[in-house]
Design goal:
The chain has 434 residues and is an alpha+beta fold. It folds into 4 domains: 97 residues, no CATH class; 89 residues, Beta-Lactamase (2-Layer Sandwich); 68 residues, Helix Hairpins; 152 residues, Heat Shock Protein 90 (2-Layer Sandwich). It has 12 helices and 13 strands. The longest helix is centred in the middle third of the chain and has 37 residues. The relative contact order is 0.06.
């Protein structure tokens, strides 16, 4: 309001001067004076308009780069500078918020892709790039179906039923299983959320295999026992030889089923998070000496078994669990090593860590089977495993015991030459022996 009155006062002042000049010098000179003032005002405004137009052409619109003005233009440029500063501050706040949002989504374990109304990529985080095989710099603006071309995903987009996720096996990364779900938001935009569920799918597969395998393992001894009991019940006179054979087989299968149930109970106890390890010093050398005698009894002279103690270090842990883990590895070596084969049991210290390992000259294991050996009831050859009397749970028990003692299980094998099963114990569990 003050500027309007000031400008009006300036015009009135110029007209008064022109009127006075007309009375003193004549109308012509007054008119010339008035025209000169008007031309100067036009030139003044044109000069500032050119300066404003040049400023608008530059790419970096900052308050410091706004040209200086005079008169009415001084107020205009001052208002413009204030607006530019406010706009810059707002832009900085938005950029900061966007950076925080991108940093937060980049840190998420799930992939996030922002799609527009026609399913073109607007932005994605690094996890989504890994899951879907896309590149933010190269693929921005590309339709998502041009990059994820699997038919179930295309149908999922077209159906527009996004309440349930889509499970997809990613072809570009073998073995990767992802869960995809679209979440509509804003004005016809969508969030595509991807989650790596490979581990959960493997766990589910193991669960299904476990149920199938344990059912099969229990069915076999029950079938044998039930068949003989039915025969004994329906036959009045039974030959003593058949009777003895039937009772022997039933006893064998009942013992096998008892061992299976005992191992299942051991696994259940080991997986119980409330069941903490009862730590105490364990004399490994003495423990292995006892296990050597048991191994010689189980082998019955069929193998050459040696024990090599290269360290008197003791372990801090559960003696019962360690006995079970070491015993399982030793008995496995005996079961799967042919007669006259060699089995060596070792305890030593390497680089501060305690190492227990069993090496045999047995039949060996194909490389593709090694990663799955610690799964419950995983059998390389089910018929051979049953002949040896194993329950299929021994290595699963060993793995759990090693994990409870912060140790790791390593398996190396070569077909036809034998296998080596080792448990590496961390230095913090080692106790100096006598």
């Amino acid at each position: 309001m003050w500027n309007i009155w000031q400008h009006s006062f300036n015009i009135v002042f110029v007209l008064m001067i022109a009127a006075v000049a007309g009375m003193v010098f004549g109308a012509l000179k007054a008119l010339i004076f008035l025209c000169g003032v008007l031309l100067w005002m036009v030139f003044h405004h044109l000069r500032h308009m050119v300066a404003l137009e040049r400023w608008l052409r530059v790419s970096d619109h900052t308050a410091a780069s706004i040209p200086a003005g005079s008169g009415a233009w001084d107020d205009v440029f001052a208002h413009l500078a204030r607006y530019v500063r406010q706009h810059s501050q707002s832009q900085e706040r938005l950029s900061s918020a966007l950076e925080r949002m991108q940093s937060a989504t980049a840190a998420m374990p799930d992939g996030v892709v922002i799609l527009d109304e026609v399913n073109r990529i607007e932005w994605c985080n690094p996890v989504a790039e890994q899951h879907l095989g896309i590149n933010l710099e190269l693929d921005t603006g590309q339709p998502i179906i041009h990059l994820v071309r699997q038919i179930p995903f295309v149908e999922y987009l077209a159906a527009r039923r996004y309440s349930n996720p889509l499970i997809l096996k990613q072809m570009r990364q073998q073995g990767l299983i992802i869960s995809l779900q679209l979440v509509p938001y804003g004005y016809h935009q969508k969030l595509l959320i991807s989650r790596d569920i490979t581990r959960f799918e493997k766990i589910e597969t193991m669960r299904r295999d476990f149920i199938a395998n344990v059912s099969h393992e229990l069915r076999t001894p029950l079938t044998v026992i039930g068949g003989f009991l039915e025969t004994l019940s329906s036959t009045e006179e039974i030959a003593p030889e058949f009777n003895r054979r039937a009772l022997a087989l039933m006893t064998e299968q009942a013992t096998r089923m008892q061992h299976l149930i005992e191992d299942l109970l051991v696994l259940s106890r080991l997986e119980d998070e409330q069941n903490k390890v009862k730590e105490k010093p364990v004399d490994v050398a003495n423990l292995l000496s006892g296990l050597l005698r048991e191994a010689e009894s189980l082998s019955a002279g069929r193998h050459r078994i040696t024990l090599m103690i290269d360290s008197r270090e003791m372990l801090c842990g559960s003696e019962e669990e360690l006995r079970s883990a070491f015993g399982n590895l030793i008995s496995n070596a005996i079961r799967y090593t042919p007669d006259q084969g060699e089995i060596s049991i070792h305890w030593e210290k390497r680089n501060g860590q305690g190492v227990f390992f069993v090496q045999d000259s047995g039949i060996g294991i194909e490389p593709e089977h090694i990663p799955r050996l610690t799964e419950r009831f995983y059998r390389i050859d089910s018929s051979r495993s049953r002949e040896t009397g194993g329950t299929g749970l021994g290595l699963a028990i060993v793995k759990h015991i090693a994990s409870r003692h912060h140790a790791r299980l390593e398996i190396t094998s070569q077909v036809g030459k034998g296998s080596l099963f080792a448990i590496w114990f961390p230095e913090k569990l080692m106790i100096a022996g006598d």
